[in-house]
Amino acid sequence: MDANIVRVAGRILKSELRYTNATQTAVCNFTIETVRQRIIKGETRFHRVTVPFVAWDTHARVIHQRFPVGAYIEVEGRLDESQSIAQSRAPRRRLQIVVEKFRVANAA
């Protein structure tokens, strides 16, 4: 059983479609914002979280074409970590969710 399953629903903040050099595979990097409303001592507060995603091939093209910035989407995927070296030679670590399933989400 794979325990690495992440589900997020929210509004798309930004989306970028590109193609790999070698195989021309579509890659869509996008960010979803989730907002949690809480009432603390009678005062309404909002907590916003942005989550980075990457979609490949058909998922990448469909998400970029059908879900414009501002659209609500529900995504299921797996948490992935990538590492690289920055120009300053400092190691960089990036956590993102790799899309496996997605659908239109109802705006809350």
How would you describe what is shown here?
The protein is mainly β and 108 residues long. It is built from 1 helix and 5 strands, in the order βββαββ. It has a single domain, classed as Nucleic acid-binding proteins (OB fold (Dihydrolipoamide Acetyltransferase, E2P)), CATH 2.40.50.140. It has one helix at 57-66, and strands at residues 6-19, 26-40, 43-56, 72-85, 91-104. Strands 1-2-3-5-4 form a 5-stranded mixed barrel.
- The overall number of domains is 1
CATH class: Mainly Beta
Give a quick account of the main beta sheet: strands, pairing sense, barrel closure: 5 strands, mixed, barrel
| Tally of separate helices | 1
User: What's the order of the H and E elements?
Assistant: EEEHEE
* CATH architecture level-2 label: Beta Barrel
Cα-to-Cα separation, first versus last residue:
31 Å
* CATH domain fold name: OB fold (Dihydrolipoamide Acetyltransferase, E2P)
Strand portion: over 45%
Q: Structural class, judged by helices and strands?
A: mainly beta
- Overall geometry comes to globular
Low-pLDDT segments: none
What helical percentage do the residues reach?
under 10%
Over all CA atoms, what is the radius of gyration?
A: 16 Å
CATH homology-level superfamily: Nucleic acid-binding proteins
- In total, the number of strands is 5
Task: Provide mean pLDDT, rounded.
Answer: 90
